[in-house]
Amino acid sequence: MKSNPLKDNLFFLISGVVIFFLARFWWPFSEWINGWIPGLLKCRFYEMTGFPCITCGGVRSAYHFVRGSWLDSFNQNAGVFFTLFMVFFVMIQSIYGLIRKVPVRTGLFLNNTLLFCLACVFLIHWIIKIVQSIFFSLSG
Question: How many angstroms separate the most distant Cα atoms in the chain?
């Protein structure tokens, strides 16, 4: 079955727009919800273990990325930063594909090597957060 380049490009473009829309408005929305119902959106992993979870800072990272504060985004969670960068690049490819009527080449981004590297970035960032958490709890 042959894929339709227009459908594929529209799918990737609309998915990217939805991801960036959620990234832009989720953090202010969650702050507003926490103002009304304190503790509703707390991290359960942190409450149970006392350590940050692997996606700790992910929403803040996405929010800063969409606002253009890329250094803040990277500092909050490097894995989310690189994930959103890949989504942004696929969106650019989708726009190019819509203009030229060619399919999106997702093989550049959705391969095992890149996904393994992305998982390593999340893991390294998580280890750094845990070490910082332990260090600051001992020094304070």
Answer: 62
Residue 66 belongs to a domain: yes
Q: What is the pLDDT of residues 90-126, one digit of tens each?
A: 788 888 888 888 777 666 556 677 778 888 999 998 8
In our burial notation (b when 16+ CB lie closer than 10 A, e otherwise), range 18-37 reads: ebbeebeebbeeeeeeeeee
Is 44 inside any structural domain? no
In a domain? residue 42: no
> Counting beta carbons within 10 angstroms of the beta carbon of residue 91, is it exposed (0 to 12), middle (13 to 18) or buried (19 or more)?
buried
Asked if residues 46 and 52 have their Cβ atoms less than 8 Å apart, the reply is: yes
Q: Is residue 61 one of the residues assigned to a domain?
A: yes
Domain span at residue 65 reads 5-30+49-139
